[in-house]
Write a structure and sequence with these properties.
Blueprint (H helix, E strand, L loop, with lengths): L1 H16 L12 H13 L5 H27 L7 H11 L18
Length: 110
């Protein structure tokens, strides 16, 4: 009886690690469908090799999620464009960048 409970626990853990699906769409993503089919097929006669692979996948997905979270936390400028990164770097050392005047600003009036 411990085997079905373990299988259900692994399945739920894998679903938790997958990206959330929108509540509006009633259909599951192909990853959810494939996962559900593979677990329903192995429910009748689960193999320890299959359970081990599923647990490894779960640990890998959890580690990837944590890695992404830490990367975003400790490298906040990773997703910024170059101008914003330069401006924030200058502010970090106590300087403000001068305002740039574009060619269409009309600063050369006669």
């Amino acid at each position: 009886m411990a085997q079905p409970a373990r299988l259900r626990s692994i399945y739920r853990s894998l679903l938790r690690e997958l990206p959330p699906r929108p509540l509006v769409s009633s259909s599951r993503s192909p990853v959810h469908e494939n996962l559900r089919q593979s677990f329903s097929a192995s429910r009748d006669a689960p193999k320890s090799n299959t359970l081990g692979q599923a647990e490894q996948l779960m640990h890998y997905l959890k580690a990837q999620r944590q890695y992404t979270t830490l990367l975003e936390r400790y490298n906040p400028g990773m997703n910024m464009d170059d101008e914003e990164r330069i401006r924030l770097s200058a502010r970090r050392v106590g300087m403000d960048l001068p305002k740039e005047y574009g060619s269409g600003s009309g600063s050369h009036q006669a």
